[in-house]
Amino acid sequence: MATIKIKQVRSRIKCPKVQKRTLDALGLRKIGRVVEHEANPAILGMVRKVKHLVQIEN
Predict the structure, then answer these.
(1) How do residues 16-40 score in pLDDT, each as one tens digit?
(2) Hey, is 39 helix, strand or coil?
(3) Which DSSP helix (H) or strand (E) runs through 48?
(4) Per residue in 34-58, pLDDT tens?
(5) For position 58, what pLDDT does the model report?
(6) Which residues is 3 bridged to in the sheet?
(7) How many Cα neighbours within 13 Å face the side chain of 45?
(8) The domain at 3-57 falls in which architecture?
(9) How many CB atoms lie within 10 A of CB 15?
(10) What is the pTM of this model?
(11) For 16, which DSSP code?
(12) Which of 36, 44, 45, 49 keeps 20 to 30 A from 1, CA to CA?
């Protein structure tokens, strides 16, 4: 499968706990951090949950 790069661009402060846990599961803990994951349905679903906090690069 293809890989995608996910970068956190907004703060997690005042976000619901579910969204904070989703960012943790993706491996994002600080603004500006970039992680690389395979583009499978589970990862894409997590990204969709926090799309207002992250930026996606193919």
Answers:
(1) 999 999 999 999 999 999 999 999 9
(2) coil
(3) helix 41-49
(4) 999 999 999 999 999 999 999 998 8
(5) 82
(6) 38
(7) 3
(8) 2-Layer Sandwich (3.30)
(9) 16
(10) 0.92
(11) -
(12) 49
Greatest Cα-to-Cα distance within the chain, rounded to the nearest angstrom: 34
**For the chain, domain boundaries:** 3-57
Give backbone dihedrals phi and psi of 37, rounded to 5 degrees, phi first. -135, 160
Asked whether the beta carbons of 32 and 7 are under 8 A apart, the reply is: yes
Question: Amino acid letter at 44?
Answer: L
* Residues 12, 19 contacting (CB under 8 angstroms): yes
Q: What's the rounded Cα separation, in Å, for the pair 22 and 15? A: 11
Which residues lie closer than 8 Å to 12 by C-beta, 6 or more apart?
A: 19, 20, 23, 53
Read off the tokens for 58: 């193919």
Per-residue tokens: 35: 């992680």
